[in-house]
Here is the input.
Amino acid sequence: MERFPEDLRIGVVLGGGGARGVAAIGILEVLVGAGLKPAAVAGTSMGALIGAFWAAGFSVAELKALATGTRWREVVDFAGAGGILRGQRFQRWLSDHLPATFEELSFPLVCTATDIDTGELVRLEHGDLVSAVRATCAFPGAFVPVERDGRHLVDGGLKSTVPVGCLPTGLADYVVACDFQPPLDRPVVPSQTTNTLDWSRFWEALTFRRRYLAADILLKAVDILQTEVCRRQLADQPPDLLIAPPMPDVNIEDFRLLHEIIDQGAAAARLALHAAPAPAPRSA
Here is the structure.
């Protein structure tokens, strides 16, 4: 795009959101197609997962093929105490596809996690890449916390769903942030009439087999909290460009809709880039 200089250093922030976060692939497709190159990426949960594969050298076409070709139910395993999903299969899957360390990536990446013992936001950007991605994706109560450096780490989205403030400083001239939080004005419409949530039903809900009213209410409550935190953080640290695909009919577990989700991410990115102001000239 003529308004964006060829040497513009882009910082990309990829938010979380389960299946909704896969819209990041469509956004990256548009950014790459516009000739914009990443100088650094920060991400949480699904955004960090996609950012890790991008930084590992996966093309957009390869990201699409991986996302839509993976049988996601086979990447998780039952745990019992501490979380529903143990995460060992997920770790093996990550190890099969990603480099062992952050230092092997093609550009800097920051994954965010939350210390479940202290409530601190933790930046993960050095050393073991696989455990960092596992940690940022460890939704509490669903995945067992990840032990790393003496901490018990879970999903970074608890503290920051779009971690603009975690981009490495001094590397980017222009920050593009991607927010995949669902709109809050949509009603909770479960596909089941019961409001009972026992462990077997919780398991079915978390492994995408069924939806129940209690699970819907729980997830909507999390959405409300995370959206409020996200709005405040983006107001305090606004990116140069915010891309937020609305996707009103997509839930976090809708992994059967990945083609449509990716397309919606691309559509939102095209609209946002078209309306984006030209970057300020870089100071000498």
Q: What stands out?
A: Residues 195 and 278 are 51 Å apart (CA to CA). The longest helix spans residues 213-236. The chain has one domain: 9-186+240-272. Residues 190-203 have pLDDT under 50 and may be disordered.
